[in-house]
Write a structure and sequence with these properties.
The protein is 33% helix and 20% strand. The protein is an alpha+beta fold. It starts with 8 loop residues before the first helix and ends in a 19-residue tail after the last helix. InterPro entries: DIOX_N, IPNS-like_FE2OG_OXY, IPNS-like_sf, Iron_ascorbate_oxido_reductase, Oxoglu/Fe-dep_dioxygenase_dom.
Length: 356
Amino acid sequence: MGSISDPPFMEAYKNLLEKREEMRNNNNPEVVVVVEECELPVIDLSQLEAREEKTREECKSQIARASEEWGFFQVVNHGISGDILKRLRWEEEKAFKEPFDVKTREENNYFSAGAYRWGSPTATCIKQLSWSEAFHIPLTDIIASNNNNNNIPTNNTLRSTMEQFASRVSKLAERIAEILAEKMGDKSSFIKENCLPDTCYMRLNRYPACPIRARCGDEIINGLMAHTDSDFLTILYQDHQVGGLQLVKDGKWIAVKPNPRALIVNIGDLFQAYSNGLYKSVYHRVVTNPISERFSTAYFFCPSNDTVIDSFTKPSLYRKFNFREYRQQVRHDVRTLGSKIGLPRFLLTHHHRHQP
């Protein structure tokens, strides 16, 4: 039974859940997917400050190799203190515990209009459901609150904690992006010039406990449906007690083992296109837990809408596009199909091939 802070998932998804139950009762077989748990590559960023050039270069090579082979990796000694991360989690939990009708107000106690989102209103089948809620906040909102913008609530410590986290994680994202560009031979400042704090954003996520999975067998209800990220890089601070993040590796779903010391970094669609497929933006999802809620904070390293993404090496797998066009195509596909298609929409015809 949900609390007054939970979105009305059961009511919103009633028809889809009933249809699913009907199919199960008609003896349609369910596909049971066995998911292995693994630890992502762990990279110690303190090695970037080593005296020996060989050590620094090996660390950079590890980052590039993980981005090519996994599209995901973990970083430790990343420069964001445990104190900031603990306070962020505490304040985030407090914000989500507000009653649902407070969170959905035009102006809630924390963020400007439109920041709060929940579920997946365009879902047409079970695999498109998202059993989650989120605050989606442009960094301009956080910066504006510290400049006493009268249109944005400022009377909470969540904002100041977020600002401390954002200022550090944005530098971390810049450093990793710079290394990845260098390792693919790009000596330009293209990413640094186009991915500025005012084009990036943060997303606070809560995945409430979902009783459906426990009641209806092995079919998974997603906290966040399978997708790739529409950015250059994502840096994730995830729950260390409750797992749930899974990614595709070698055609199989792999469960990511939580690491309390690490932040998770993953490659987004824009880096895959810019690197001409060298770095991989892989499908990932969050599965629900029948008993425990889960929290995470994601930082999305994005360019301005007018930034043109053109593959660094030739011949290019993808046609040129700007970020605005990419986002519009994603929104159109989600609205009309229920899910994102992403980069396959931008493959040049002679390179068209099946994407997982």
